[in-house]
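#onboarding

Welcome to the new folks! Below is a worked example of what a typical request in this channel looks like: someone posts a single protein sequence, and someone else replies with the predicted structure as tokens. Don't worry about understanding the tokens yet, we'll cover that in week two.

Example request:
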Amino acid sequence: DDNVGHPVSVFLANVDPAKVTEAEMTSLAKMVQDEIAAIAAYPAGSPQLKEFNDRAASRLREMARDAEAYLNSPPGFGLRGGNGGGWYSLMRVLENQSGFKKSLLQKEERAAAAAELAKNENIWTALVAKWKLTAVKPYLVGCVPDPQMLVKTADEKKARLDAFAQSLVKKYNVADVPSAIAKYKEEFDRQTAIIDSIAALVPVPKFLDNPPLSFDPTLDYRIDTIAGAVPMVASTFNSMTAATMTLALNLRGVPEAQLLYVPLLPDLITEIGVVKNGQVIDYAALSQRLKNEVLYLYGDLAVNPYTGRVELAVTAAGSNAAEGKAALEWAAAGLRNPYLAPANLPRLRDVVDNRIVGLRNRMKGSEEGWVQGPAVSYLYQNDPLILAAFSFLTQENLMLRLKWRLMAEKGSPAAAEAITALNALAGVSNQPKNDLVHLAETFSGGDRAAYGAGPFATFTSAYEAASPEARKIIDAALADLAATVPSTPEANAAADWTALVTQMIGGLQYGAQAALDDLGGLLRIIAHRGNARLAMVSNEADRATLMPSITALVSCLSTDGPPARVVYTKRPFIWDRARSRYPGLEKPAFVGLINPNTRNGVFVNSAPCALYSDTDQDRLLDYLAAKLYGGHGAHSMFMKTWSAGLAYSNGLRSSEVDGQLTYYAERCPDLSTTMRFVVDQLRQAPYSPELGEYAVALAFDLSRGSNDYVSRGMAMAGNLTDGVAPEKVEAFRKRILELRRMPDLYDRLQRRMENVYAQVLIGYGPKTVDRSRSSYFIIGPETQFASLDEYIG
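Example response:
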């Protein structure tokens, strides 16, 4: 880090909370400092020093490539979010350098560092001493969940509110708190009215006479066909110094019984190793070679729930043509021959375990990063492939199933002993949930004598009789139960316990080799030319140079017969799961996901709206009416709600891309208060004809011209795949401009506003509005559910 006093930090994520103790952290810090001390003590010219310096040199080259690629990203100064502050940080570094001419790539510094690494002496001895990396005790910071903190902060908040209310009683010299709050509201509304009256004096600027008619009108792209079969969208930026290529493979041929492998598919490309030219290159060696040879290579799942597109996307990039060629060769190796062998099972298990931990921790992160996923998954719950590729909650269960398939070989003595114990474990599901959780959390590391009698006796006997290898498997089962069962409803704990244990037994009976065979066979199904599309962003010269390598990548794809297509079971998976817990449940009007990790609430309400393909005037007018109080204008629900402290990211949005009208609000201190506030604001909204222009302007706010080159090219390729061609966007926007010429446009939009917003706002608009296609989805703790339930009445 360039902050004084903090040269080096070591971060570890997804740590078992039980390990976050002073003793464990001190031990960990000692391990790190001992390793640094060992590096500083390597003898000059020793193989250990050369290996370490070679690794450092490859990291230096990787940083240089990243810096070159970064120059292809516009700074984004003045844009909300900009470019993440990277350009600002770079300018700050250069400002502190002497001289007039300065390199954005910091070439002199990197060259100097490379020269130091090339020396046949240990440069780290002096540097470690200078930086005091082993001479001082480091700061140790660990974060763990604390359920009592929620209670404590709630009590503290109540105390603050009570104290503030009493101060209002004194300020207004009234008899009680309700009277004081009423006086405060009067003053607040009076001051707000003054602010609004001043804001009303600011003229709303007229919208452009000639707005852009597509997302990216200046993008230079063309559509080619590779090997006579695979379409490629090639975007050209001749000032680029790097080339990026994505091969996307349609996953609609994955058999339904093998959907559990879908979340792992991206990891097969770079995270487990490959077999290339007959040579096994394990994960550690592959990672090092990729740092040395390419700009980047990674796999991802590209999902558009609204169009049903689900793809395995493999992206390869090089900072020059030679690196681009190497990246494409590695991509082909990852698709053709990932290291799927019994000898590599430990690495595969590590990957799966890390993914499971990450998925389990998603709901502990910022709401902005995950709340849209469950709400969108709920809308598209009748498509199991979308759930497998898009829903992190579904993926957690699928990866857990895969973990148990990879746990042991079918029929091995350890697996057989473990199955015996797990069958006994399934038999105790009728015990109270707290007892089951206590067993899962304490059995392996505690005094098992307490379980030797009573309902857990049979399981305890099976465990005691098991071999050490089998006990490891049983301990893993208990750990997974301890991580999963506490979040299940009390009434369903027994059924969930049984289902999870049965799932583990099924995985052991399936066996690791069968799972490896499945993964290899699945890649052969997916890697078909009929599934493929390509996207490339580069300068023209590099594209011409790389065309033979791109053709070679396509050549590794199968041409045997037509690509497989599967018709998946179409049923409401989430409703069916809910009915298993609430027998007789019909389609609910209001749905929620309980998140016990927060006190705040989230709205993700949605209803159908206009798409780019729509030509009906009424639908287009509804679409514009939905924009009257969207966006980030001073009058918008975003600004009103944010300034009132009733939500952070929030607002009313109508998207022609996905055809959805949405009301989104997160970090709401009280859902019912937030909804009541929004409804009141809209009911009291003044007559404002200038908002007609505002609504039209928002219909053109999706523009990618200031984005980085790669994202622009890849987004266009995705649009074309989804049927959102520039000419379709242009036709849609021209229809909006035709509506703009209506002399009474604002009046038409205002008359429609109630019926439109009523589809996503609770308690707003006439009761006759059709809400049958609306989805009202909330996320939060039980207290937020109770609050909104009271508001709904």
